[in-house]
From TrEMBL, chain A:
<dbReference type="InterPro" id="IPR016024">
    <property type="entry name" value="ARM-type_fold"/>
</dbReference>
<feature type="binding site">
    <location>
        <begin position="57"/>
        <end position="61"/>
    </location>
    <ligand>
        <name>a 1,2-diacyl-sn-glycero-3-phospho-(1D-myo-inositol-3,4,5-trisphosphate)</name>
    </ligand>
</feature>
<dbReference type="InterPro" id="IPR009028">
    <property type="entry name" value="Coatomer/calthrin_app_sub_C"/>
</dbReference>
<dbReference type="GO" id="GO:0035615">
    <property type="term" value="F:clathrin adaptor activity"/>
</dbReference>
<keyword id="KW-1003">Cell membrane</keyword>
<dbReference type="InterPro" id="IPR008152">
    <property type="entry name" value="Clathrin_a/b/g-adaptin_app_Ig"/>
</dbReference>
<feature type="compositionally biased region" description="Low complexity">
    <location>
        <begin position="637"/>
        <end position="654"/>
    </location>
</feature>
<feature type="binding site">
    <location>
        <position position="53"/>
    </location>
    <ligand>
        <name>a 1,2-diacyl-sn-glycero-3-phospho-(1D-myo-inositol-3,4,5-trisphosphate)</name>
    </ligand>
</feature>
<dbReference type="InterPro" id="IPR017104">
    <property type="entry name" value="AP2_complex_asu"/>
</dbReference>
TrEMBL record, chain B:
<keyword id="KW-1003">Cell membrane</keyword>
<feature type="binding site">
    <location>
        <position position="363"/>
    </location>
    <ligand>
        <name>a 1,2-diacyl-sn-glycero-3-phospho-(1D-myo-inositol-3,4,5-trisphosphate)</name>
    </ligand>
</feature>
<dbReference type="GO" id="GO:0005886">
    <property type="term" value="C:plasma membrane"/>
</dbReference>
<dbReference type="GO" id="GO:0030131">
    <property type="term" value="C:clathrin adaptor complex"/>
</dbReference>
<dbReference type="InterPro" id="IPR043512">
    <property type="entry name" value="Mu2_C"/>
</dbReference>
<dbReference type="InterPro" id="IPR022775">
    <property type="entry name" value="AP_mu_sigma_su"/>
</dbReference>
<dbReference type="Pfam" id="PF01217">
    <property type="entry name" value="Clat_adaptor_s"/>
</dbReference>
<feature type="binding site">
    <location>
        <position position="350"/>
    </location>
    <ligand>
        <name>a 1,2-diacyl-sn-glycero-3-phospho-(1D-myo-inositol-3,4,5-trisphosphate)</name>
    </ligand>
</feature>
<keyword id="KW-0446">Lipid-binding</keyword>
Length: 1030, 444
């Protein structure tokens, strides 16, 4: 930069700045600035043109005022004028002002671009540099558009000066970062790579940055840079410190360039070519060797530069992860840094070691430093370094040292900083679970964790404990004993009370034999904590109490007394009140057997990914948690009790949805659990410890997730899916255990009945997805539909036109449920015969009768079934269906069985209708009308005008049309209230295209249905079927 | 309650720091400096909550006074105290400036010990304080035991604001009605908001323990007396009837009194009776919003001639008796932020463009009632590249008039001193009305 001459000193500016600095108050400063602004305005306004010097001075003042935080809305023109000056200082100030102040949408941008263009094409390297810097500083899209072609040209032109090349490379880097789409990749890219061979190290440094960025985007285009970079690197590394003159920084040869080259190499896998590879290994070894040499200078800059190169080299080694010797050497080198005086070095060493720990070659080497790391955790003063130490301990943990590490982390937790406590808690919880050899240790650890840092133990952690305790028979007794002991502490954390309440409620009987932990003692212990807890915990404790009533009938009186107290029965919190009322009634009315069934011990949870891990991942973001989860999985499979570790979908690992599913884990709706089909089993849900709202909300949020879980469930689930017991219409129900319980609730008061229905609602939700899309789409509706089925079993086929599941038939003895799937011309029907009595059905037999002409149009093959159906059990029959051609009649299912010696005969029409073989067809408006016109023959169209039987709800109608099987086409009909659908009916012999249009008239409560198909019989049949639906 | 009190200079250096409660640590001092005085964005709220600690501040010239508390105190109380504190300091050493505070810091600490106790405000009556906190050393004062015990009995007694045994050769009373009138007016002359906040300030030099009674043309009082007929205050009613018959009684929206006023009597009889402190004090404060006499009317005319020129004409009309004279009139006409030159012509007074304040300031020394005067200005503008329109801030005005814009009139001020031998007639009473402008703005 040319020196500023004395005459250019700009005294006015200096005076102004010193005035500002001398201002006593903000007000005085603002006054001074206002005055100066007015002065500049009058100067700029003045008629006589200002000379370059004054212009520069005033622009400088404006710049200064702007930098003080005031708005500047004039002076741009003057600044642009300065750009065309021939004096360096004036040009410089002009560019400075523009880089700082001009926003991209200014209309001056054209003038500016012009000036820049002039400077770029000038031969003066200083001016070119100024222009390039301005482009890079502004970096707007407009700039990129204007100069994206020029800058690369300057960069690779043979006659460009080195300093300009340097600027051009950096300018291009900036443009590439701000608007990568505008920078064309062209033939220049190949030539950029050769800049790595440039004589001038400054150019090489700038070019390396550029190439690194470009190579990250298009690695293939810059593959050639690897060999050049290695060559360059080896030349630098092997050079004596005096060789590189200006680029030697405190005896380190070109540290910045080395770091950048090493970064560039990290964009690529280890070089294939053995020679290059050898040379690179040599370089890396040299760098590692140099780290061992005594420092050439005591200055901190020397060691900083040296270590920067070293750390970058180590990250390259880790990145390549192929040279065991290098990895081990790197690890040893880092080990030395662990005890270095410099905090930064310790931090970096721990951080790099974390990544090293995940490499198979160096994992063992990392483990040798465990004592140092633990020591760092204890004695380190800097919290961020301690945090890294925790990370490293987590990363280096395996079966051999898990106990030690977990113990250390626990002891550190007592003094840990608040900011990292929660993370440590999660890590301890994960490690304890992952490497648990015996589960007593695990339980001890987690209880300790809750004791030490209860506030930081998130829900997931204690959910997980309970999941594990429930799934492992061998620890249940120990867990009960331990929590019992832990609860005896005078002040214990609420989370501990939660765990305690749950575990004692489930397994309190295991320790009840000991007089020191007799049922009453257990209860009193829990209840002594009750009043100190929050509402959710109290709710959980109430559930624990009712479980106690089942486990220990001797404390029933005491517990009922507690439930009966006003503080429960009239609690202001509706959840607590409801539980108290329900539990009290349940305990009073239900017999021991029913209680035992309802309050049965929780079945094991399905094994799934630890929710804690999911939480930790979310907390840290993907990638930061080392990959040891992968190892963990295989270990988990053989170590942790051989439960098959199923993650139903690959994305379930990280997606929040799966987390929501996990959340539910301790409050398990019975859907995903294989258990005998007793109607009472789903009544367990409201009794589970979490409040019903808590389980309903995630359910609604994650219907999708639930589907996965449900899909894996056993088929007898479908019996549960049949909506009859859910519909909460007790009079219609036979006196099974389920209805009895519902009756219990409804007896209380209308309010309680509503509550019972509300409690049943969350169950309906999980049941719905099991059934079918049709069902799951609108859950309240599904209940409603179920209602109507019960009311109207006589003509079942109509009900099944638009849906595939439901109850086909029901009387005192038998309930027939259906679930069907259709695909093109084939279908499969699952028929469920539920024995509603307590006695066995004998010689149970079914047959399907197809009259002529149906017999030739439809093939129906029922699979054989067992001749007996036990009391309360369910029998499934599969019927395969094939549609040969279009048909009208319905097949009849004949059922015969003996009940109490009397032969029962039941005949039901099977709801197999023509529309079941629809395949929906999506088409755009134009296509639709074209086909509509093609089907204009009079017999092809059938129209029916009829009165609405149900309320004309658009959503319901839509659902029905979709259920009918056709695709609902939006935006085809010009009138948005009309419905238009299209589909193809597949039969074995032919395919029949079908278009339909439904025009509701809400005033007249009428519909007009028009159908056009290529076959008249089909049109007529479909029209009849569909007309009855609305 | 107030946990501590700090005084800072403009740089944020602590001049006075007095902590009353343990919950306020030393770091509170820095917290206020960092977050308020040196805040990146100018802090406009007088109450700031930093790390669960509340800071209430007022600024006097370049001095910041901040009261700090961790409790949920009555903010109005704290500000009342801070204002009182300012008054007390002004009474002791004049203007509040860094220099004065540095010179009097022993005195200030002494005052702070006296007027705040464990964060609870105590007696802050200047007159009373001056009897026992003096600027001279103890030695120079010849306090006898008797005098000291007298001070004690006074300060702890029922009438803490007046000592016994005061004697004057001439019994005099000075009564000032000081009002500030606030206005916001639309360009068309419609009143958008207007109110008067007034104070009655007294200076009394009376012997003994006189009982005073103050009467004014408050609507409620007059109504009450009208209904009550001629019972107790018949003499006063008659004597003033001539004066008040033609004039309206005014409606006072709310008022507050000096502690010497007997509130029980005010509540029952609406009469203001009190034993006055000796010397200067503020008897009452009040606020009115109805039937305000606006002393000046400002008529603005702004015309934008193209993008680079603005023509402004402002007419002011005085709206009071021609015999009265307004003083210290100042009209402030804001100019756009891109003003590059101004030419002003005015008939009366002096006008100048002040670039540092972005305004044309027009000053007139004196102006009689029912007159008008005008100014016209041509403002040259520099075209700017942003399309923001000028916000046109309102034209503001300052003045002083010798009457009360609220219409308040003092009807009587009677002095009874049964023990000493002077009567109401012997007291020389002076009444003065001063109306000043508060925020007196007209949109243009």
């Amino acid at each position: 930069m040319p020196a500023v001459s004395k005459g250019d000193g700009m005294r006015g500016l200096a005076v102004f700045i010193s005035d500002i600095r001398n201002c006593k108050s903000k007000e005085a400063e603002i006054k001074r600035i206002n005055k100066e602004l007015a002065n500049i305005r009058s100067k700029f306004k003045g008629d006589k043109a200002l000379d370059g010097y004054s212009k520069k001075k005033y622009v400088c003042k404006l710049l200064f005022i702007f930098l003080l935080g005031h708005d500047i809305d004039f002076g741009h023109m003057e600044a642009v004028n300065l750009l065309s000056s021939n004096k360096y200082t004036e040009k410089q100030i002009g560019y400075l002002f523009i880089s700082v102040l001009v926003n991209s949408n200014s209309d001056l941008i054209r003038l500016i671009n012009n000036a820049i263009k002039n400077d770029l094409s000038s031969r003066n390297p200083t001016f070119m540099n100024l222009a390039l810097h301005c482009i890079a500083n502004v970096g707007s899209r407009e700039m990129a558009e204007a100069f994206a072609a020029d800058v690369p040209r300057i960069l690779v032109a043979g006659d460009t000066m080195d300093s300009v090349k340097q600027s051009a490379a950096l300018c291009l880097l900036r443009l590439n970062r701000t608007s990568p789409d505008l920078v064309p990749m062209g033939e220049w890219t190949a030539r950029v790579v050769h800049l790595l061979n440039d004589q001038h190290l400054g150019v090489v440094t700038a070019a390396t940055s550029l190439i690194t960025t470009l190579a990250q985007k298009n690695p293939d285009d810059f593959k050639t840079s690897v060999s050049l970079a290695v060559a360059r690197l080896s030349r630098i590394v092997t050079s004596a410190s005096t060789d590189l003159q200006d680029y030697t920084y405190y005896f380190v040869a070109a540290p910045w360039l080395s770091v950048k080259l090493l970064r560039l190499l990290q964009c690529y896998p280890p070089p294939e070519d053995a020679a290059i590879r050898g040379r690179l290994t040599e370089c890396l070894e040299t760098i590692l060797n140099k780290a061992q040499e005594p420092p050439k200078s005591k200055k901190v800059q020397h060691s900083n530069a040296k270590n920067a190169v070293l750390f970058e080299a180590i990250s390259l080694i880790i990145h390549h992860d192929s040279e065991p010797t290098l990895l081990v050497r790197a690890c040893n080198q880092l080990g030395q840094f662990l005890q270095h005086r410099e905090t930064n070095l310790r931090y970096l060493a721990l951080e790099s070691m974390c990544t090293l720990a995940s490499s198979e070659f160096s994992h063992e080497a990392v483990k040798t430093h465990i004592d140092t790391v633990i020591n760092a955790l204890k004695t380190e003063r800097d919290v961020s370094v301690r945090q890294r130490a925790v990370d490293l301990l987590y990363a280096m943990c395996d079966r051999s040292n898990a106990k030690q590490i977990v113990a250390e982390m626990l002891s550190y937790l007592e003094t840990a900083d608040y900011s990292i406590r929660e993370e440590i808690v999660l890590k301890v919880a994960i490690l304890a679970e992952k490497y648990a050899v015996d589960y007593t240790w695990y339980v001890d650890t987690i209880l300790n964790l809750i004791r030490i840092a209860g506030d930081y133990v998130s829900e997931e952690v204690w959910y997980r404990v309970i999941q594990i305790v429930i799934n492992r028979d061998d620890v249940q007794g120990y867990a009960a004993k331990t929590v019992f002991e832990a609860l005896q502490a005078p002040a214990c954390h609420e989370n501990l009370v939660k765990v305690g309440g749950y575990i004692l409620g489930e397994f309190g009987n295991l320790i009840a034999g000991d007089p020191r932990s007799s049922p009453l003692v257990q209860f009193n212990l829990l209840h002594s904590k009750f009043h100190l807890c929050s509402v959710p915990t109290r709710a959980l404790l109430l559930s624990a109490y009712i479980k106690f009533i089942n486990l220990f009938p001797e404390v029933k009186g005491t517990i009922q007394e507690v439930l009966r107290s006003d503080s429960q029965l009239r609690n202001a919190d509706v959840e607590l009140q409801q539980r108290a009322v329900e539990y009290l009634r349940l305990s009073c009315i239900a017999s021991t057997d029913i209680l035992a069934t309802v309050l049965e011990e929780m079945p094991p949870f399905p094994e799934r990914e630890s929710s804690i891990l999911a939480k930790l991942k979310r907390k840290k973001g993907p990638g930061t948690v080392p990959d040891i989860e992968e190892n963990r999985k295989e270990r988990n499979a053989n170590v942790n009790g051989g439960t098959n570790h199923t993650t139903t979908t690959p994305n379930a690992k990280t997606s929040p949805a799966s987390f929501v599913g996990d959340l539910l884990a301790p409050a398990p709706p019975p859907t995903n659990r294989p258990r005998p089909v007793s109607s009472s089993s789903f009544l367990q849900t409201p009794l589970t410890p979490l409040p019903s709202q808590a389980c309903a909300i995630p359910l609604a949020a994650s219907a999708g997730t639930f589907y996965q879980v449900a899909a894996a469930a056993s088929p007898d689930l479908l019996g549960l899916g049949s909506p009859s017991p859910l519909s909460s219409t007790p009079p219609a129900l036979p006196p099974t255990a389920a209805s009895l319980l519902i009756d219990v609730f409804s007896e209380n008061s209308p309010g309680a009945a509503a509550a019972a229905a509300a409690a049943a609602a969350p169950i309906a939700v999980p049941a719905a997805p099991v059934a079918d899309d049709n069902f799951s789409s609108i859950t309240p509706e599904s209940l409603h539909v179920a209602d109507s089925i019960l009311a109207d079993v006589q003509e079942p086929t109509d009900k099944f036109v638009c849906k595939n599941n439901g109850v086909l038939y029901e009387n005192q003895l038998l309930q027939i449920g259906l679930k069907c799937e259709y695909r093109q011309s084939l279908g499969r029907m699952y028929v469920f015969f539920g024995n509603k009595t307590s006695t066995q059905f004998l010689s149970f037999a079914t047959s399907v009768v197809c009259q002529e002409p149906l017999a030739s149009q439809l093939n129906v093959h029922p699979k054989p079934v067992d001749p007996t159906v036990d009391g309360g059990a369910q029998l499934q029959q599969i019927i395969n269906i094939e549609c040969v051609s279009d048909f009208v009649e319905a097949a009849v299912l004949n059922i015969q069985f003996r009940y109490g010696g009397i032969l029962q005969n039941i005949a039901v029409k099977l709801p197999i209708t023509l529309n079941k073989f629809f395949q929906p067809t999506e088409m755009i408006s134009q296509d639709f009308f074209q086909r509509w016109k093609q089907l204009s023959a009079p017999q092809q169209e059938v129209q029916n005008i009829f009165k609405a039987k149900h309320s004309m709800d658009t959503e319901v109608t839509k659902a029905k049309i979709i259920g009918f099987g056709v695709a609902l086409l939006d935006g085809v009909d010009p009138n948005p209230s009309n419905f238009v659908g299209a589909g193809v009916i597949h039969t074995k012999t032919t395919q029949v295209g079908c278009l339909l249009r439904l025009e509701p008239n809400t005033q007249a409560q009428m519909y007009r249905l028009t159908l056009r198909t290529s076959r008249d019989t089909v049109s007529q049949r479909l029209c009849d079927l569909l007309s009855d639906q609305f | 309650m107030i946990g501590g009190l700090f005084i800072y200079n403009h740089k944020g250096e602590v001049l006075i720091s007095r902590v009353y409660r343990d919950d306020i640590g030393r770091n509170a001092v820095d917290a206020f400096r960092v977050n308020v005085i040196h805040a990146r964005q100018q802090v406009r709220s007088p109450v700031n909550n930093i790390a669960r600690t509340s800071f209430f501040h007022v600024k006097r010239s370049n001095i910041w006074l901040a009261a700090v508390t961790k409790q949920n105190v009555n903010a109005a109380m704290v500000f009342e105290f801070l204002y009182k504190m300012c008054d007390v300091m002004t009474a002791y050493f004049g203007k509040i400036s860094e220099e004065n505070i540095k010179n009097n810091f022993v005195l200030i600490y002494e005052l702070l010990d006296e007027i705040l106790d464990f964060g609870y405000p105590q007696n802050s009556e200047t007159g009373a304080l001056k009897t026992f906190i003096t600027q001279q050393g103890i030695k120079s004062q010849h306090h006898t035991k008797e005098e000291q015990s007298q001070i004690t009995s006074q300060v702890t007694g029922q009438i803490g604001w007046r000592r016994e045994g005061i004697k004057y050769r001439r019994n005099e009373l000075f009564l000032d009605v000081l009002e500030s009138v606030n206005l916001l007016m639309s360009p068309q002359g419609q009143v958008l908001s207007a109110h008067v906040s007034g104070r009655v300030v007294m200076k009394s030099y009376l012997s003994g323990m006189p009982e005073c009674k103050f009467g004014m043309n408050d609507k409620i009082i007059i109504d009450k007396q009208g209904k009550g007929g001629t019972t107790t205050t018949d003499e006063a009613g008659k004597s003033d009837l001539g004066g008040s018959s033609g004039k309206q009684a005014i409606a006072i929206d709310d008022c507050t009194f000096h502690q010497c006023v007997r509130l029980s009597k005010f509540d029952t009889e609406r009469s203001i009776s009190f034993i006055p402190p000796d010397g200067e004090y503020e008897l009452m404060r009040y606020r009115t919003t109805k039937d305000i006499i606006l002393p000046f009317r400002v008529i603005p005319l702004v015309r934008e001639v193209g993008r680079t020129k603005l023509e402004v004409k402002v007419v002011i009309k005085s709206n009071f008796k021609p015999s009265l004279l307004a003083q210290k009139i100042e009209v402030r006409i804001p100019t756009p932020l891109n003003t590059s030159g101004v030419q002003v012509i005015c008939m009366k007074g002096k006008a100048k463009y002040k670039a540092s304040e972005n305004a044309i300031v027009w000053k007139i020394k004196r102006m009689a009632g029912m007159k008008e005067s005008q100014i016209s200005a041509e403002i040259e503008l520099l075209p700017t590249n942003d399309k923001k329109k000028w916000a046109r801030p309102p034209i503001s005005m300052n003045f002083e008039v010798p009457f009360a814009p609220s219409g308040l009139k003092v009807r009587y001020l009677k002095v009874f001193e049964p023990k000493l031998n002077y009567s109401d007639h012997d007291v020389i009473k002076w009444v003065r009305y001063i109306g000043r402008s508060g925020i007196y703005e007209t949109r243009c």
